[in-house]
What does this fold into?
Amino acid sequence: MLSVNFTPFPVITTPRLLLRKTTPDDVNELYYLRSSEVVMKDIDRPRPKSKEDIQQLIEKIQNMIANNEGIEWAITLVGDHTFIGTISFHRLIKEHYRAEVGYLLHPAHHRKGIMSEALKAVVAYGFNNMGLHSIEAQVTPGNIASEKLLETHGFVREGYFKENHLKNGNFIDTAIYSLINKGE
Ligand SMILES: CC(C)(COP(=O)(O)OP(=O)(O)OC[C@H]1O[C@@H](n2cnc3c(N)ncnc32)[C@H](O)[C@@H]1OP(=O)(O)O)[C@@H](O)C(=O)NCCC(=O)NCCS
It folds into this structure.
């Protein structure tokens, strides 16, 4: 069984980014992201009704990390602590050494290779530090940015479920991507 320990929190740096723990100070930025229809278009999570919902979400994220049930990094630019996005292993399947990755980025920073840089670092952390064997991503077909990002990083579309997800009264499809740790 996979055993992980996210304490102390594993801060990750890349040439342009610092991935750190989300704190209650990030409430405004996370509220913006989670309320943005551009960002949330293909993500079926309830939209926050107030900043209190986000405060509760941050608490939930912190508990998840403290209990080693999953991990989420706040994405910031080096030298600027402002929160511009998140990347997470929000579903850990410890018995199968597998995790699901998810990510959100502020639209002002789209298409600058930011998530590519974050994903590369987080995949390396997942394989080399956590000991994952595989990483999964679930994508709504047509989310070209996410599909392209995953394919660039070697993820393969292994599955496709037709109308498996009820969203706003419509049954929609899900594509399942996966990357296997080849130990290279
Ligand atoms: C998905 C998302 C995180 C991508 O972040 P990003 O930092 O803009 O992506 P990058 O700049 O690193 O681009 C990665 C690749 O995707 C391509 N890409 C990104 N956005 C694209 C778009 N809108 N259309 C076509 N290609 C796109 C880039 O050209 C790049 O391709 P390359 O590797 O061949 O150069 C961002 O669009 C986002 O936050 N979307 C809303 C949230 C979301 O849908 N999350 C995923 C749920 S599964």
The chain has a mean pLDDT of 96. The chain has one domain: 12-180.
